[in-house]
Amino acid sequence: MTPIVEVRFKGNRKEYFTWPSEDPLALHDAVIVEVERGHDLGRVSAVGAVATKKCGAACQGCSLAAGATSAPAPPAPPAPPAAPERRIVRRATPDDTRTAERLHEEEDTVRRKVMERVHHHALPMKVSDAEWQWDRKKLTVYFTSEQRVDFRTLVRDLAGLFHTRIELRQIGARDEAKRLDGVGRCGRQFCCSSWLPELRPVSLALAKDQHLSLNPSQISGGCGRLLCCLRYEHDFYVQTRKRFPKEGKVLRSGAGLERVLAVDIFRETVTLRVEAGGGDTRVVSLEKLKDEIARSGGDA
Question: 63: pLDDT confidence band, cut at 50, 70 and 90?
């Protein structure tokens, strides 16, 4: 089987290619790869079994898609992912990497020029980044917008300005943070830019289940959306809370009828308030509460 290699480009963009040579590639090697309209330069980020596994996960079984039929097929053993269609042309030379570095130095100036043209055409879009293809046959402009944008006139304007093929690519706020990178409130590099394999949806329900503050400024990341890390411990909270009575529920315990005010899943305690009389409150361990409920005949 032809070796599969993961190659990363600017902005944490990654793609998969085949390497037809028997000379092994190493991590961070600069390589020239085939792209849609020419060649681009990237750096090797995974090789061997790791790259093959990641490639199969990224395309969700491209070998299955290649052999799909209209009739349902009987179950079959999982097949290895089909090799990517594009290949690595060669290792990059020092001159190649210097060319790429010069292009990256120009990209900030290019982005500012694109922003000027966007303002000239009064388009409701925010230009996030610009990326030259290594052979200068394509310029990709990344932008965010809260609405659909008709940028056909802008594309013609930019094509005349830069004399190359222009691709405008709309991305979301999370994708923008992944591309531009940064440091989170935890003091570490953004998860989406460093190790997070995919950007899964994050809802406010995740914060509610963990009894976190619902203040957006406290549970939002650098992208302005809810923190990706809200998902990390969510399953633990959900499973652990199943062992505790729900807050607001009335129980029959050793002190009579009591309402559950709060639970502490880490200390394994429950805060209760007596329904009758002065409404005294107490904190009891979960194990002791279960014993009291069992002796008192269960729930109210």
Answer: very low
Domain containing residue 51: 4-68+79-92
Give me the phi and psi of 75, to 5 degrees please. -55, 140
Is 224 contained in some domain?
A: yes
Q: Looking at the domain assignment, is residue 86 inside a domain? A: yes
> Are the C-beta atoms of 2 and 51 separated by less than 8 Å?
no
Residues 63 and 81: beta-carbon distance below 8 Å: yes
Cβ-based neighbours of 153, under 8 Å, separated by 6 or more: 121
Quote the pLDDT of residue 44: 96
Based on the domain organization, do 191 and 231 belong to the same domain?
Answer: yes
CA 13-3-77 angle, 5° bins: 100
pTM attached to this predicted model: 0.76
- Identify the CATH number of the domain in which residue 117 sits: 3.30.300
At which residue do the structure tokens 């900030």 appear? 108
Contacts 24+ apart (CB under 8 A), 89-92: 89/31, 89/32, 89/33, 89/34, 89/39, 90/31, 90/32, 91/25, 91/29, 91/30, 91/31, 91/32, 92/29, 92/30, 92/31, 92/32, 92/41
Structural domain count, the chain: 4
Residue 74 lies in a domain: no
